[in-house]
Design brief:
The complex is a heterodimer of chains A (166) and B (167). Chain A has 166 residues and is mainly alpha-helical. Chain A is 72% helix and 0% strand. Chain A contains eight helices and no strands. Chain B has eight helices and no strands. The longest helix of chain B has 27 residues. The chains are: A mainly alpha (166), B mainly alpha (167).
Chain lengths: 166, 167
C-alpha cells in the first residue's frame, strides 16, 4: 500500500491528477476514449462480418484491421498506465479494475486467436464461416462490452473522481 | 436562449430528471456505459468507411460496407437517447457550457456532411468503387471531414468536465 501511495504521489502522478493542465488528465482520458473507439469499433466490424451480417465483405481484406486495432490498443495501454498511476492506491486494490484488465486480456487473446485461426485459412472467402470463428466473434462482442462496462465503472472510484465530476 | 432556459426548467422538474440525477443511482453510470458502447459502434463503422475512402484498406470494396451502416446508426441512436437522458438529468450544467455547444455543433456538421454525401450523389458514385480502386477527391474530402468531426465530437464530449465543468 505504501508503494501504491508513493506511485500515486510521484511527480508524474500528481501532474496527471492535479496540475490542472489540459494536457494532463483531460487529454490522457480523451486519448483513452479515442483508442477505445477504434480498438473496439474495428473488433465489432470484424465480429459482425464473421457472424454473417455483411456477407459480401471479403474476410481476407479485414486482416488489415489489425494495425488499426493494435494502434488503438497501444494508445490505451499507454494512456491507461498514466491514468492508473494517478489513481494507483485505488485501482490496484480494486476488484473492478482487475476485472477490467482480465476482460481486456481475454479479449486481446481472442483477437489474436481470430487472426491465427480464421485468417490463416487459405480459402477463407470460399467456405462458410466455421462455427469456431462465429464463437470467437460472439466472445469478442461479449468481452469488449464487458471491458467497456467495467472500465466505465472504474471512473466512479479513486481520488481523480473529483476531477471527473461523476 | 430563453426558450432553451424554459425547456431546461421544464425538463429539470420531470420525474425522469430526478431519476437520472441520482434518484436511481445506477441509472447515470448505466447510461454512460451505453454511451461508450454506442460510440464504439458509430466511430468503428463510420471510421472504417472513412479510412477506406481515404485509401487505407484498399483491398476492401466499398459497396458491401454499406451493410454495416445500420449498426453505426444504432450506435448513433443509442447515443442520442442516452445523451438526451444526461441532458434531462442536469440541463443547467450543459446549456451554459461552451464545450457542450461545440459538441452539438460538431454533431450537426457531421450530419450535414453525411447529408451532402448522399444528396450530391457522391455516395452512388463511391458505391461502385471496387477493391484496389480509389474514390474521387471530393469523396476523400468528405471522408476526412467526417473523421475530423467525429473525433472532434469525442474530444468535446470528453472535455465537458474539464473545460466546461459538466460531467
Amino acid at each position: 500500500m505504501a508503494t501504491l501511495t508513493a506511485i500515486e504521489n510521484s511527480g508524474f502522478g500528481i501532474w496527471v491528477r492535479e496540475s490542472g493542465s489540459v494536457w494532463s488528465y483531460p487529454t490522457i482520458i480523451f486519448l483513452h476514449s479515442l483508442g477505445l473507439a477504434f480498438l473496439v469499433g474495428m473488433n465489432v466490424v470484424l465480429a459482425l462480418r464473421l457472424l454473417g451480417l455483411a456477407p459480401r465483405i471479403p474476410i481476407s481484406a479485414l486482416e488489415r484491421l489489425y494495425p488499426i486495432m493494435w494502434a488503438g490498443f497501444w494508445i490505451n495501454a499507454a494512456s491507461g498506465v498514466a491514468l492508473a498511476i494517478a489513481d494507483a492506491s485505488t485501482m490496484f486494490i480494486s476488484t473492478l479494475f482487475y476485472l477490467k484488465l482480465g476482460l481486456i486480456a481475454a479479449a486481446v487473446v481472442n483477437m489474436v486467436c481470430i487472426r491465427r485461426y480464421v485468417f490463416a485459412h487459405p480459402r477463407i472467402d470460399r467456405v462458410a464461416v466455421p462455427a469456431s470463428a462465429r464463437l470467437m466473434a460472439t466472445l469478442s462482442l461479449v468481452l469488449w462490452a464487458g471491458a467497456i462496462t467495467a472500465g466505465r465503472l472504474t471512473a466512479y472510484i479513486g481520488p481523480a473522481v473529483a476531477l471527473k465530476g461523476r | 436562449m430563453a426558450a432553451v432556459e424554459a425547456l431546461s426548467r421544464w425538463l429539470h422538474a420531470t420525474r425522469l430528471s430526478w431519476a437520472m440525477a441520482g434518484g436511481y443511482p445506477w441509472l447515470w453510470p448505466a447510461c454512460e456505459t451505453l454511451h461508450f458502447i454506442g460510440m464504439a459502434l458509430l466511430v468503428g463503422i463510420v471510421g472504417l468507411i472513412d479510412l477506406r475512402m481515404l485509401g487505407f484498406l484498399r483491398s476492401l470494396p466499398l459497396k458491401p460496407l454499406d451493410r454495416l451502416l445500420p449498426w453505426g446508426i444504432l450506435g448513433f441512436v443509442i447515443n442520442t437517447v442516452t445523451g438526451l437522458l444526461f441532458f434531462t438529468g442536469d440541463p443547467f450544467q450543459y446549456i451554459h457550457n461552451l464545450v457542450f455547444w461545440l459538441k452539438m455543433a460538431f454533431i450537426l456538421l457531421a450530419g450535414l456532411n453525411v447529408g451532402a454525401f448522399y444528396l450530391t450523389g457522391l455516395h452512388r458514385r463511391v458505391t461502385s468503387v471496387g477493391a484496389e480502386e480509389d474514390v474521387p477527391l471530393s469523396a476523400k474530402l468528405v471522408a476526412a471531414a467526417s473523421l475530423f468531426l467525429w473525433i472532434g465530437v469525442m474530444y468535446w464530449g470528453r472535455m465537458l468536465p474539464f473545460l466546461g465543468e459538466a460531467f
